[in-house]
Write a structure and sequence with these properties.
heterodimer; A: 406 residues; mainly beta; seven-stranded mixed sheet; four-stranded antiparallel sheet; 1 helix; B: 966 residues; nine-stranded antiparallel sheet; eight-stranded antiparallel sheet; 10 helices
């Protein structure tokens, strides 16, 4: 153990950004950033928020399944997730409807941009701009330095009225996919209810408009609900679909290729690209599960009891009912397991794996699964990010806790 | 290990074990440890399945009716054969078709062996086989639930006898010779053979197996010796006269209400476990109790118990109930902060005035307020601060003012928490029509000028709400005509109120509501415009639309399917029952959408989805409605719900229990429930029927057995009544049946009540499914005002076999009887005038599962729809022969000229509307309903609660939805 710590101390620290939800467009939850544990709390944002949950809770059980406890399928709607670039951190608020930029080392607010509805997913920061979606029915692009509006795209246009929703006002064309940016194109979906029609868009990231043949905006009726952070492959867009299973679209044309609907598919808003397969979930009829499927929609693997994952080049880190396990990607064998109270989220930062759980944060060595650090936390930790020497933890009360090396 | 024996009434007996006792099991903590059960004679090892829960005074083991049973490892040949007795002290919590207390049995028709002591059709029974078919002895009376009973079965080689509380209640000489056993388990607390398992629900204190047939004298003596301790005459569940019911009265407070027969100081113990730990009491004695449980945590289940005073000045607990704060939708109050540099006293005073007036009108104010021209946002903040149940949004066309106000509120940490501001074009507000409970205007209050078109503010005000046109504190001369008359407002009524609360009305729709609202206003002088429901709005007041069971709301607003989503949200799946067990359908009357969850009620504003109130009601649950009747109906004033022996009435505006009515019979519960209003302003006459306590279906947890979709008696047995009655301002009446009334057929039509009765079938079990129930059945008409029998006609349904479902509906002077039996729907039409048959048709079920055999008829546009056919109501001619292909397990509902339905779709879950005028259909993918009737219309809205609870299918949204006309 001591030897291992010495090795870590001796290793050079690598600083890297965390520019979007789960780090990148493939949602790998993985960064080259290295963080030296132990960490201590540097600052935290705001008072606990209340009443910000987007959807009512699942039923306790499915009596069809002889009363097995049901697992929540939404992984985005109870925490304010962050993006961190350079010395700044960016996060939205489901309660206060703003996007905020703060000094990552102190929490001092640099700017605040208000939308007209809850902001539920982490922004994407690219090329000096901050991209995000709001429940008001619009995708936004603001200047990362000043917080001024660059463009706003409301796919439903004037039809996008605001509806009462548990004490809030929300557009039925709320943008709950986040906005992911790659190669100058911004991708997002708008709409919650298939019967009202939903939109999926690929627009010029600098203008918010359709300016090239590879840009598109499609309306789909009675098909799906785009909810959950979009995942990009070279030529495909993967669309988590609320309580359902993900859909796949052609990235160039926006045409629907199909839905991942193998009978044993995991359902919900978790989706992650593993090269040429998609890992998605986190629930099926009998509890937690992540399904791995090829682009032909056929399931090739089931991770029963798993609810989230992070992936590095050689290993898959899975959290769920059994705690945390490290799986060799080549052999598919479990290399190590850490039996800890059920963790909720996981990221890998260099050689360290971080997990968030109910009232706690932990760190493990990525190679051996040896626990390196743990600390108590307020609430349930639903989101993690690591960037530029800091660990960001988002809880189910809308608060963000920022840790740095002691 | 040394274990201390509890002091029980059996201790003496145990110390000196009587002869012929094979073994005796005292089911208390002294003899059950880590699932191992010891007999007094240590004869065999025994294991308790399921959780170990004891009750005290007397000590007993609680069997949950699902998982508990004691399996005794008796070897072949160990059990007595030539003669024996099975004896037990038991207190059943519920009855049913089958249940076992003790036995070793195999009963599968062609192979019947062993013996069992238990119950059959809720009557104590004892069965023995000597190699022949089992002979079942049964008591004549049904078991007394929640009372201790001493039950003994004896067999002496020639005669079987059954004793209850020391009295012989049945005997038989049908068996002869030694008992023939099968290789079946010897069990306590269930009826179990290799095919079936019917667990016992209740308490068992002691079970004894004897190697002789006890003589009557010994049984009498043993009963007498123990009965002083067991007290069989006492109901184990101390009950209040009415209640309890629980309302959440602040973000961390629940108030428990109940009524008692005499003045008492009410007290409640509560906590997160059944050990409670906290106590709350009333200061003064009364008969109407309300005790606040404070400091409750969010999203937490609490247990609570009413405490009943005893003669020695102490108190004793009654039944243990539970509540869940997940369903408290009241947000915490705003923090005590001052977001604005210079406080506007006027804004605070106005907010205080609004809060007071709203509270006096509706109780705890809930919903949405729009500040149309919100100025600096101070009034928005003050209103939200004054009313924790209300969300306030301010709109202005002044972008700078909005930005400044947002920043101020956000700096104080309160922006977004029920307080939002928006810069928008006041001529085109980004809201649908009929959204806000109140629309006010800071700009009007300050300058007297409406900041945009009044029509736009009126457009977004919802029906049953008012738009005040003048400042509430001003004293102005009444102008005639009103300056707003020129707007030619549709669907609005104008009122003038003065300081002395005198209201002049034009007597039109909405009068009661306005009077209620203005009753609380003490400083009002001015015009107040009241928005009435959209023209053509219908109502869904009873389970099947109306008291005539047409399954039609009569709503023409939403008929064409040209509707859009108006709101969505709570209640979600968590507070509901599973989607399978054929739950009580929701209702919508006069702008209130009533939803029954799992032992809880929700009242939502039909136009904006705001949860106006919710109550937790133990013992409310009723399932398998197709074989019974719903326990809810609504009038324009509120909701009636049947709970045990009473019907309760909750006010629609605030959920206050205004009154309750007890069934006009002893030892009966309230079964069927209906109400009738002569007009929207008249009080309702309430109709009911009397059922045997415990005869309704209430179970839904445990899988397929509780889907009520199978063809066995456990699903299809009909709940029966033995009288029909009415409570009316013009006098009450009761019609006592000589036999039984089938609840699922009770309906109102014109001034009459109709039902199917069997005048010779015994009422004894309260629920039955036998061919005899239908043989000799007759159709009956009563005068609804007097209860006088007008006519009865024999029904020729006896030959159709057992009805899987039997429904009766009334429309246009005709009665429609739908008998779903023998794999077919048999539809009969009768003259409501005299009961003469007009026509009948038969067509086969399309499927015998997923509710395909349980469709309720829909009467729409002069047709009787029984899928897949639509028959002419007058002639029976086929008017429709093609219906949309429908999967899933739901039944149809209708609006005035449209059908609403759900097509099962694992991936998408889809609602549909079918405009019968144009023939067009519209699909609404994304959500699904439950396995009976949950998709309804009323008040100009199309409504779907989160009825699909527990469904882990792949459809994308699971939320309560309200659709309004485009």
């Amino acid at each position: 153990m001591k030897a291992l710590v010495l090795i870590f101390i001796a290793a050079p620290l690598i600083a890297a950004d965390w520019p979007t939800f789960l780090h990148d467009a493939q949602r790998t939850s993985s960064t080259t950033e290295t963080l030296r544990t132990p960490l201590k709390l540097a600052w935290k944002s705001g008072a606990p928020e209340g009443g910000t949950q987007a959807w009512p809770d699942e039923a306790k059980r499915d009596e069809y399944r002889a009363g097995k406890a049901l697992v929540p399928r939404y992984s985005f709607d109870r925490a304010n997730h962050v993006a961190a670039v350079g010395d700044r951190v960016f996060f939205g608020s489901a309660q206060s409807h703003w996007m905020r930029c703060a000094d990552a080392s102190t929490g001092a607010v640099k700017w605040t941009f208000f939308s007209d509805g809850p902001i539920r997913l982490a922004p994407t920061v690219a090329d000096g701009r901050v991209y995000f979606g709001s429940d008001d029915g619009s995708a936004y692009c603001v200047d990362a330095a000043k917080g001024t509006l660059v463009w706003k795209n409301t796919p439903a246009g004037e039809a996008s009225k605001l509806l009462p929703n548990d004490g809030r006002f929300v557009s039925p064309w709320a943008v709950r996919t986040g906005v992911i940016v790659d190669k100058g194109t911004a991708y997002f979906g708008a709409g919650l209810f298939p019967h009202e029609g939903v939109f999926v868009c690929a627009v010029d990231a600098s203008t918010g408009k359709i300016t090239s043949p590879t840009h598109w905006q499609h309306r789909f009726e009675n098909e799906f609900t785009p909810q959950g952070a979009l995942v990009l492959a070279e030529d495909r867009v993967f669309l988590p679909a609320g309580r359902s299973t993900p859909w796949m679209l052609d990235r160039t044309t926006g045409k629907v290729s199909g839905q991942f609907n193998d009978k044993k598919s995991g359902m919900g808003t978790f989706a992650m690209l593993l090269g040429d397969t998609l890992l998605y979930g986190p629930a099926d009829r009998g509890g937690s599960v992540l399904t791995e499927a090829g682009f032909d929609f056929k399931a090739i693997g089931l991770l029963s009891g798993a609810s989230a994952a992070a992936v590095s080049s050689d290993r898959l880190y899975i959290v769920g009912e059994k705690g945390l396990i490290g799986v060799n990607r080549k052999t598919k064998g479990v290399e190590w397991a850490a039996k800890i109270p059920q963790p909720i989220c996981v990221i890998v930062a260099g050689e360290t794996v971080f997990t968030g759980g109910d009232g706690e944060l932990r760190a493990f060595s990525a190679a051996k699964g040896i626990e390196l650090w743990q600390t108590k936390a307020d609430g349930r930790i639903l989101g993690l990010a690591a960037a530029n020497g800091r660990l960001f933890a988002s809880n189910d009360r809308g608060q963000i806790f920022v840790f740095a090396a002691e | 290990m040394i274990r201390l024996l509890p002091l029980t009434m059996f201790a003496v007996q145990a110390a000196a074990m009587q002869p012929f006792v094979v073994d005796r099991w005292e089911l208390n903590a002294g003899f059950i440890h880590k699932g191992s059960v010891e007999g007094m004679n240590h004869r065999w090892p025994a294991k308790l399945e399921g959780a170990t829960v004891f009750s005290a005074k007397p000590d007993a083991l609680s069997f949950d009716g699902k998982t508990n049973a004691i399996v005794i490892d008796a070897k072949d040949g160990d059990l007595p054969t030539n003669e024996f007795s099975a004896e037990a002290w038991v207190a059943p919590r519920s009855g049913g078709a089958w249940g076992g207390v003790m036995g070793c049995i195999q009963d599968n028709g062609d192979f019947e062996r062993g013996w069992v002591l238990g119950y059959k059709d809720s009557k104590w029974c004892f069965a023995v086989s000597t190699g022949k078919k089992l002979t079942y002895l049964a008591a004549l009376d049904t078991m007394r639930l929640n009372h201790w009973a001493h039950v003994v079965g004896t067999y002496d080689g020639t005669t079987m006898r059954l004793f209850v509380n020391g009295l012989e209640v049945a005997n038989s000489a049908a068996q002869n010779g030694p008992v023939a056993y099968a290789p079946a388990p010897f069990v306590i607390g269930t009826y179990r053979d290799k095919d079936e398992n019917y667990p016992f629900s209740g308490l068992i204190a002691q079970a004894t197996l004897w190697s002789r047939a006890l003589p009557m004298e010994q049984i009498e003596a043993q009963f007498a010796a123990s009965s002083k301790v067991m007290n069989p005459g006492q109901n184990l569940l101390l009950q209040p006269l009415v209640g309890p019911w629980v309302k959440f009265t602040s973000h961390d407070t629940a108030t428990v209400y109940w009524e008692s027969e005499d003045n008492q100081k009410g007290a409640v113990v509560f906590g997160e476990t059944t050990a409670f730990g906290a106590r709350a009491s009333e200061a003064e004695a009364s008969m109407n109790h309300s005790v606040e449980l404070r400091g409750l945590k969010p999203k937490t289940k609490y247990f609570y118990q009413l405490r009943f005073p005893t003669a020695d000045g102490a108190d004793v607990g009654g039944e243990t109930y539970s509540l869940e704060t997940d369903f408290n939708f009241i947000r915490p109050p705003q923090p005590d902060v001052k977001p604005f540099a210079g406080e506007d006293e006027k804004a605070a005073k106005i907010a205080e005035w609004w809060e007071g007036h709203a509270r006096s009108a509706v109780g705890e104010p809930r919903g949405y307020i729009l500040d149309y021209g919100c100025g600096d946002g101070q009034l928005v903040w003050e209103l939200a601060k004054a009313m924790p149940g209300v969300s306030v949004i301010g709109v202005s066309d002044d972008a700078a003012a909005i930005a400044k106000a947002r920043a101020q509120l956000d700096a104080a940490g309160v922006y977004g928490n029920r307080v939002t501001l928006m810069h928008c074009d006041l001529k085109k507000l980004p809201f649908h029509p009929d959204t806000f409970d109140w629309v006010i205007s800071s700009d009007v209050l300050r300058s007297g000028k409406v900041p945009g078109p009044v029509e736009e503010a009126l457009r977004v005000t919802k029906p049953r709400s008012a738009f005040p046109m003048e400042p509430p504190w001003g004293s102005i001369t009444r102008p005639e005509p009103s300056p707003y008359d020129e707007l030619g407002l549709k669907h609005w009524r104008k009122w003038w109120s003065t300081f002395d609360d005198r209201v002049e009305s034009n007597g039109e729709e909405g009068a009661n509501d306005v009077l209620n609202i203005l009753h609380g206003i003490r400083q009002w002088e001015g015009y107040l415009y009241w928005k009435i429901a959209p023209k053509g709005a219908g109502a869904w007041s009873h389970a099947y639309g109306d008291a005539s069971n047409t399954a039609n709301s009569g709503d023409s607003v939403v008929a064409d399917g040209e509707v859009g989503l108006r709101w969505f949200g709570e209640p979600g799946a968590r507070g509901m029952m599973d989607r399978q067990p054929r739950n009580a359908p929701p209702l919508c009357v006069n702008g209130t959408f009533y939803i029954q969850g799992n032992n809880r009620l929700f009242a939502l504003d039909a136009y904006n989805g705001a949860v106006r109130w919710s109550v937790e009601v133990p013992n409310l649950r009723r399932v398998n409605v197709p074989r019974d009747s719903s326990n809810m109906c609504a009038s324009t004033y509120g909701l009636f719900v049947a709970v045990k022996d009473r019907v309760w009435h909750f006010s629609d505006a605030n959920g206050r229990l205004s009154h309750s009515l007890k069934v006009p019979a002893e030892d009966r519960d309230w079964g069927w429930l209906a109400c009738h209003q002569d007009s929207a302003r008249s009080y309702a006459t309430v109709f009911g029927s009397t059922i045997k306590p415990g005869s309704t279906y209430t179970e839904f947890e445990g899988g397929e057995a509780f889907w009520y979709d199978t063809h066995t008696e456990a699903s299809t047995a009909k709940v029966l009544s033995d009288s029909v009655f009415a409570f009316s301002q013009n006098g009450n009446w009761t019609d006592k049946s000589k036999g039984v009334v089938i609840n699922s057929t009770l309906c109102l039509g014109g001034d009459r009540i109709y039902f199917v009765e069997n005048p010779t079938f015994p009422f004894d079990t309260g629920r039955a499914e036998k061919p005899e129930l239908y043989k000799g059945a007759q159709l009956v008409a009563l005068d609804a005002k007097t209860g006088k029998r007008l006519w009865h006609k024999p029904l020729a349904i006896g030959g159709l076999g057992i009805a899987e479902a039997l429904y009766l509906s009334y429309s246009d002077g005709k009665l429609v009887l739908l008998d779903s039996a023998n794999k077919a729907y048999h539809t009969f039409a009768f003259s409501a005038k005299n009961g003469n048959e007009l026509w009948h048709r038969t067509h086969p079920w399309k499927r015998d599962h997923h509710g395909g055999h349980l469709y309720h008829p829909v009467i729409v546009r002069g047709m009787v729809i029984v899928e897949p056919f639509g028959y002419d109501l007058a002639t029976g001619d086929v008017k429709l022969s093609e219906m949309p292909e429908r999967g899933g397990c739901s039944t149809l509902s209708a609006a005035k000229d449209a059908l609403h339905f759900i097509n099962w779709d694992y991936d998408k879950g889809s609602l549909y509307t079918w405009d019968l005028t144009s023939g067009s259909q519209r699909k609404f993918s994304g959500s699904r309903g439950n396995c009976f009737l949950s998709f309804i219309s009323g008040s100009g809205m199309m409504l779907l609660p989160t009825a699909s609870g527990g469904c882990s299918c792949r459809y994308p949204n699971q939320v309560t939805l309200g659709f309004g006309s485009k």
